[in-house]
Amino acid sequence: MEFAKRLNRLPPYLFVEINRRIVEVRAQGKDIVDFGIGDPDLPTPSHIIERMCQAAHDPVNHRYPETGGLPELRQAIAEWYGRRFGVELDPAKEVLPLIGSKEGIGHMALCFIEPGDLALVPDPGYPPFSLGTILAGGEPYFMPLKEENDFLPDFEVIPDDVADKAKLMWLNYPNNPTGAIADLDFFDKAVHFAQQHGLAICHDAPYTEIAFDGYRAPSFMQMPGAKNIGVEFHSLSKTYHMTGWRIGMVVGNADMVNALFKVKSNLDSGVAQAIQHAAVEALRGSQEHIARHNAIFQGRRDKLVKVLNEVGLRARMPKATFYVWAKIPPGFTSIDFAKKLLDEIGIAVTPGTGYGKEGEGYIRFSLTISDDRLEEGVNRLSSWHGRRT
Ligand SMILES: Cc1ncc(COP(=O)(O)O)c(C=O)c1O
User: Fold this and answer.
1) How far, in Å, CA of 343 to CA of 26, rounded?
2) Ligand 1 and 235: CB distance under 6 A
3) pLDDT (tens digit, 9 = 90+) per residue, 237-272?
4) Which of 50, 273, 291, 384 is the most exposed place for a label (fewest CB within 10 A)?
5) What atom in ligand 1 is closest to the CA of residue 243?
C-alpha cells in the first residue's frame, strides 16, 4: 500500500505527547482540570433542540439534503447578517451553509491553491488554514501575530514578491488562540493590501458573538469592498453552542461562494436537513441566551485572568472568544510548561506551539469548563504559586 506523499507533508501532531501524558495521569487516578478544549460546556438552547426533534420526525428530512442547503436557511443567514451587522447578502448567490465552518475552510484551499502556490496564514493560527493549504499542494507563508502588534499581522513586512505570488490570505478575528480583536480600520488595511496584490481574503469569524464588557465585534463583510475580494466564514457552533451538530456558513463574494459550492457538491451532500431547520430556529428565534452565556464566560475570564497574573503567567483580558492566552516564564518551552502544569497540579492546557511557532512561550486556557472546575483550577494555580515562592 502506498499512501499519497501529501500525507507526509502534514506536520507532526504536536498534541500527541501532551495527550498521551493526560491519558497516563488520568490512568493513575489523578483528577485533571481540563482547560484544553474549546468546546462550550453549556448546552444548545432548548428551543433549538425542540425544532431539531420535530424536523427529525418528518420523513422529508430523512432524505439527502442539497449541497446548497434549504432556501429558508440561506434566507435566515442573510437576515441574521442584516440584523447583526447591517450587511446585505443575496441568499441565492452570496450564502452557503457548511457542515461546520472547519469543513468549508479546508475545502476553500482546493478552490485557490495549485501545487506550489502560497497562502498567507496567521501564526499562531487555527490549524486548518495551513493544513488545508498543504493538502491542496501549496505552501503556507506565515504572518507572525506579535503581542506588540496586538496580535494583528503587519502587512508591511510581507515581501512584495510573496504577496504578489500568494493567492489567498486567511484572517481570524476575534482570534483563536490569542483572544485578540480587530477593528474596521484593520479590515480596511487588509482590503487595500489584498487589492494591491490581487489576493482573495477569507475571514474566519466564529467568535463574533462571544464578547465581553459591552464589546461588539464587527464583520469583515461590513467593509466597503470586502465583497469584491473576500468571504467570511461563520458558525453556529460557538454562538448557539452547537459544536456537535456541525453547521456553519460562508458568505460574501458570489464567485468564491460558487467555487466552494462546486467543490462541495462533488464531495459532500450538504448538512442534514433536521439540523438546517434547527439552524433556522437558532438564527430567527430568541437570542436571549447569548448575553446570559457571555456573562458566565466573562465571570470565568475575570477569575482566571486575575489568578494567572498573580501567579506570574501574564495574560491580557480578552474582549472576545472564550480563550485566555498566557505568557509562560522564561526557560520553558510551551510544551514543557504544559506538561509541568499537568504533572504538578493536574491542569491541562494547550501549548501555544500547537498553533504555530509564534505560539512558543504561550499556553492557551479555554473557559469552556464548568464554574466549579474553573474554581478548582484557579485554586490549584494559586496554591502551586504559594508553594513555589
Ligand atoms: C478559529 C476557528 N475557526 C473555525 C472553527 C470551527 O468551527 P466549526 O465548529 O464551525 O467547524 C473553530 C473551532 O474551534 C475555530 O476556533
Assistant:
1) 11
2) yes
3) 999 999 999 999 999 999 999 999 999 999 999 999
4) 291
5) 9
Strand spans (E) along the chain: 33-34, 95-98, 118-123, 139-144, 168-172, 200-204, 230-235, 248-252, 323-327, 347-348, 350-351, 362-366
CA distance 105 to 170: 9
pLDDT (tens digit per residue) in 125-161 = 999 999 999 999 999 999 999 999 999 999 999 999 9
- Between vectors from CA 208 to CA 227 and to CA 151, what angle results, nearest 5°? 90
Pairing of strands 95-98, 248-252: antiparallel
The CA distances from residue 366 to 146, 213, 220, 253, in Å, are 20, 18, 25, 33
Does any ligand 1 atom lie closer than 6 A to the CB of residue 234? no
- The pTM of this model reads 0.96
In the prediction, which pLDDT does 20 show? 84
Torsion-angle region of 314 (φ positive above 0: left; ψ -120 to 50: alpha; else: beta): beta
Mean pLDDT within 28-50: 92
Which cell goes with 74?
A: 440561506
What mean pLDDT comes out for the span 87-100? 98
